[in-house]
Structures are given as structure tokens and as C-alpha cells.
């Protein structure tokens, strides 16, 4: 197994250029001839067969060194990159200002954002637009699309007009993948209504994994870094928990997780992947000893079907228990005085204690407050054993 301690995700010090050099030396083996730099869109060839249909040759107990090096270089702001002399040209800005068409044989960005939304065949088969919609500082295979310059990056971040178009471009591609942006402020995403057909396309057309990696990189480069972790978490849930996207799983582990520039968020994502990866002994994307000790700093967003459970105060992932309020019983309203307040306070204390790990107790205890003498009771439910 590779030495995952070389990954700066788990280092104690701040990430810097020296860390990048260390990561470049990370052990690993080339995992297959199909590995490509994730930031580039493969225009010339379609996959010979869907990834989901082939036996995985890369899950052999070693990190994908090409992915590790590529994502490390991105996170450390391309320390070896010599920026081109653009002579004042800013083609990426001009495109996002709706002043020029993308090349080759392209159209204006507003045409894409307004008219391509439901044209999935066009979004799938055209291989030239993605480098313009989500530019990077590294070159891609479309030589007409020029790498971002640092000057362009600053304007992208400061222009409200450009930021709005970038978010719309992100929503366009999410829809193409069967995903919807639920909250622009937090970056929360969820399944779209047509997710089943779009997921099928994702499983069969693996070049979209390269596009997603490019999108994640571009978001982090252009001021929308808070969109990265929610999207990666979504793909980890769909690949490792729900197992709906087997064709995306390897890219989610090798590339998507390590596109997240916030180190704390990256740790939480790697920890989530480690918790749900099977067999766990084959997990090579983080150090096992540190993963066992790691405690997520905040409660992770529940799976889509469990959001209501979280709002109701139940632990994420628990099935709803039979509610005692649906059966006849004493009214929760007590007489005036201190007794109801004390009972409510006691209930809150007990519930806080019961949320701690107690294997011998029911997972979702409930309490009742009623009558003059408020009382608390644990009510088991059939749902607990299912």
C-alpha cells in the first residue's frame, strides 16, 4: 500500500510549495493505460466500453499516482507553471462577457446558457465548449481555448456579471448530469427529477468524469470554492452509499475528493469515503490510523431522503419511528406554573444524552410530557429493528 502520509491533506502544517514537492514523490503505480490528466476533455475518442461494464483494474491497493500528482499541482496553484505572454489578450473574459464565440465553430455564452439547457445530445457530443465554460490555468486538448491568466482570474472573481454567468453554467452542467443546485449560498445539491436517465449516461460515458474534474477545479479557481465540497459529497453518496454511479466511483476517489482546496473539508470527505468504502482494508486514499481518530467538525449533510429526519431532530439515516402523538394519550399541555418548563428542560437534557453512542438503548427514544406530574418514558418502535 502507498504511503498516504505524503498527502498534505493530513499534514499538520500549512500547505505550501514544499508540500507540493513532497506529494510529487508519493509512492504509487500507474493504474492503467486509460488514466488521463483529469483536467483535459478527451475530444477525439469515445470510451470503447462503459467503465461500469469492465472489471476494475485500478483497485489493486495502490494510489493512482497520476491523479495524486495532478490534483496536488492544482491545489498548490501550479508551482511549476510559467504563465504565457498573452499580449493583453483575455479570451476567457471576452467569452464570459458575451463578446466572442467559443472556438472552434462555437457560439456566444448566452446562447449556451439559454438554448442548450435541455439539449443533452449537444452537451454530450460537443467537445469544444467545456474548456471555455470552465477555464483552467493549465492547457487542455482544445488548443483554441487558452489557459486562464492570473489577471483573468482576478476579474472573474470581482465581476458580478461574470460570476452570475459562471453559476448559470454550473447549473447547466449539473442539469445535464441529473443534479440540481438547491442553494447557491451553501452549494447544496440534490437529485433532479430526471436523474435516472442522466445517471445512466454518466455511467456509460466516462469522459464526463474528466469534465466534472475540470468543473471542480474551475470552481475553486474562480471564486466559487464553496460549491466544491457539496458536489463531491453528492458523488460519494451516489457511488459508495447508494451505489448508483459505479462508472464515476473511481474518479470520485482519485480526483473529485482532492479537487477540494479547503483542507478541512477535504479531510471530512476522505473520512466519509473511508467510512463507506468496502472492503475498508483496501482504502488507499488516506492514512488508516488518522482516519480512525478523525472526528468530523460538523454534522454532515444527510442523504437526500433523510433531510426531513434531520429537521425533525432524528439522527441522519434513521427510519422514522411510530409517533406516539398519533395515538390517544394525555395532552402535552400542562397546567400553568413551573412544572412544564422543568419537564421540558429535563427532556432536552435527556435527549442530548441519548444522542451519544449507547448501543444498548433504542436509537430514537421519545418522551412525553403530560398531566400535572410530567413524566419521561422510552418508547421502543418496530422501526428500530428493521
Automatic annotation (TrEMBL):
Name of this chain's protein: Opioid growth factor receptor
Naturally occurring in which organism (per UniProt): Macaca nemestrina (Pig-tailed macaque)
UniProt-listed Pfam families: OGFr_III, OGFr_N
Biased composition (Basic and acidic residues): 301-317
Family as reported in the entry's similarity comment: Belongs to the opioid growth factor receptor family.
Cited InterPro entries: OGF_rcpt, OGF_rcpt_rpt, OGFr
Every Opioid growth factor receptor (OGFr) conserved domain range: 87-291
Segments for region (Disordered): 1-62, 294-343
A GO cellular component entry from the record: membrane
Gene Ontology MF terms in the entry: opioid growth factor receptor activity
Biased composition regions of type Acidic residues, renumbered to the chain: 1-29, 38-48
